[in-house]
Amino acid sequence: MIGLDHDLRISGALRVGNYAQGSISITPVANTPTSIAVTGLNLAGAGTVRAWVTANTLVPGTTVLGVSVTDVTATGLTVWVYRSNTTETLIRWLAIRDRV
Predict the structure, then answer these.
(1) How far apart are CA 88 and CA 59, in angstroms?
(2) Domain ranges of the chain
(3) What is the pLDDT of residue 33?
């Protein structure tokens, strides 16, 4: 790993092989965890893959009761939403793989 003694500033798009992000829309079943698979990732590296998700919503905790991610691999992941109604929900996701 390279250590830097100063800020690294990037102008334009950041492209690295061990990083992927995106968004996916899920139309949930009310009061039931509902999932959709994200496929086609090809994360470089050889280490652990970590993923995060967040709902793009104005009603967190009241109508959108939870989002999560499971089955995280270098080639895909599964995104979950739990919502009290059937309104389509945009979920943003991020996956990073260690470069070890």
Answers:
(1) 13
(2) 19-97
(3) 98
Q: With residue 38 as reference, give the H or E element that holds it.
A: strand 34-39
User: Which of 6-15, 21-30, 32-41, 59-68 is predicted with the least confidence, judged by mean pLDDT?
Assistant: 6-15
| Structural element, H or E, at residue 91 | strand 89-97
Q: Cβ distance 72 to 49 under 8 Å? A: yes
User: For residue range 76-97, what is the model confidence (pLDDT) as tens digits?
Assistant: 999 999 999 999 999 999 999 9
How far does Cα 16 stand from its chain's mean position? 16
Bridge-partner residues for 49, per DSSP?
97
- The rounded distance, in Å, linking the Cα atoms of 39 and 72 is 10
Alpha-carbon dihedral sign for residues 43, 56, 88, 61: positive
